[in-house]
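We give its fold:
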Amino acid sequence: MRSRDHLPWQNCRVADEPDDGAVEAIAIELAACRQRGIERLDVSSHNQTAVQIPVLQRLAGEYVMVMQLHAHGRIQQLKFLFRDAIKAFAVENEGDALLVGDLFFGDSLNRVTKSAGELLDLARRKSGYRTEALFRQVRRTAFEEFARFLPDFIEDAKLGNARNARPGAAASGSVSVLPELTTPAYYESAPDPEVQRQEAETGYVVNGEHFTRLLAEAANATIVGFTNEKLASMLRTALDRKRAALQKPDACWDSLRIVFLSDKLLDLVNDERREYPSQEEALRRRREAAMHGRRTVSVFLRGLPVGRWTTYESNYLPPLVGTLFEMPNGRRIVQLLIRRPQRAAEDHLYLQMEDTQGHYFSAAFEEIVHSSVDDNKVVPVGSPAADAPERFHVASTRYRQNVLKDGSRASGWLPLVLVITWRARSGRAEPLLQLRTQLNASRELDRLSHPSGHILEDDRGRQQDFGLQDAVPLRAARRRVQMETSEEDSGTLRPLGTSRYIHPDKENLFFFVYSCEFPEGFQLSWEAEMSSVSVSELLSIRDNQALRLALQLCESPPARGKARTDAFEIAALNLTLHGHPELARHMMNAGSRGPAGIVRIAPEIRDLEERTRQTWSGLEQNEVALMGLSGLQYREFFSLLLPYYESVGVTGAADHLRIIREDENARRAVARLNELYRDESVMESILLEL
């Protein structure tokens, strides 16, 4: 329970305290702020109007002017006043200060995310008072004491600044102080806004540690870069530090804005690529870096709360490159990047300073953002065409960041492309698959996959339906290949067919499948994380995946009888195709016999799964525990991938397909799996990815 030094009726006033009428007015306004929530004071809707708090608004305005804090709008001004006043209030009245802080801010250090009701409930539980009536009385008393304290706090701030003021301080580049606001001296000593000296610091970029530290501390950031190729890893590190410092696993920036240079301007950049004497090679590497930067940053951002971030594309060379950090205390720190031609990125310089009183740098960053194009991607949503099931019909659109959310129960189909990439080397065809990591994917991490991606609204134009041979999916497929190669025509695309992937808890996927043969000897960059994978390796990887999925099914079987039977049949058929006939038979029996049969089979599957696990080398990790193949390629490995590998002469594909064709059980398993995987009623009833 909170300790209290006095009870309400023991309070007394001294001669220089504010009169009771002023205290009461402030207390009433404090209560109104608390009831609405400080972040929602300006909300105006059909049943709410903005909260009127003239006295507090005047006090907050005076305080930020005295302290020369950069605060836009009354909410930010009030937050500065309340936070600083609560700290000072706690010196002599810790109990009341803690309660007021809990009611206004809770555990937030910047933006208050909890509602007023949530803050009230948390403060009530934290206080330990036995009855609601007692807590209400204590709350009222705390607000009255805080209301009595606030005017004196403002006067102390004015007097303190007046005592510390010195001639020329405001123009020196350090934080200036002001005399009493009501005196003419304030107007006479104000610095000329056009002549401001700034203290700045400089340093080498090196590994970006200084930038990352500021990013972790900032509440908002606007980042203007050319390629931003290393930004994603810095963002991840900064967010981890922010969450650790605040001890909140869901902490995030209030706003994050990132500007990229458009592709058409990349060849105008004179940057550090001195190792490439060929201008064509330097341009290709620059485009490669820009593609890598865009993808890795966008993948990272899609993991943040919707509405907290925006990406932009600048069609003009920006007047500056750097970052504007807006700190929780209102400071605005500008860090400008000074690029040094023919030098490595770590040898670039940065120039750092606080923004000027006129916010000139902030205005410059705002101009860059406003002259850029919002890069928020939109995807079409629809369904397979009713009269031509191999075509896709568009019904609506959604933002890409809002689709494929686990458990969303969102309806509709999303059109995607899958490009089966391969190359010939030493006269032999070899598949090229990508390891999906947090740098290149937001879903199905630690799986191997041929390149796949959304068809975007930009690809579609005005076309309402399209098929495999049309320009819309072809355009998306070329863009997807270019994402890995940085070249527009780096391989030969050929249409193969369409396929469907049914989800139990979110939108379904409609795939347009193409093949892409790269020229012999073609080399991909290391950032692509693509490598050749043999058929035998793919079979081993999928074998372990089938075992792992069977084990997950045993641990969380569907409750409904038919769904459980169908799920265990799918798992059993996959085990059959990997040479586990006894396990497959036990799985089929367990699906129909219930919990007792499932308990008996699980230990055997677990032991085999642990012994067959696979690892892979990743870009940021030496060893990645492979989770298998991406969804569609796992489901249609024997009906789509392996037959195509056989057609282009991939070693081992024909031999394994021959084994399946000659084994009646395996042949039936492939056919039955195709039937089950394409049955919407079956797959939507199984709340597991199988």
Remarks:
- The radius of gyration is 32 Å.
- The mean pLDDT is 83.
- The first helix runs from residue 20 to 36.
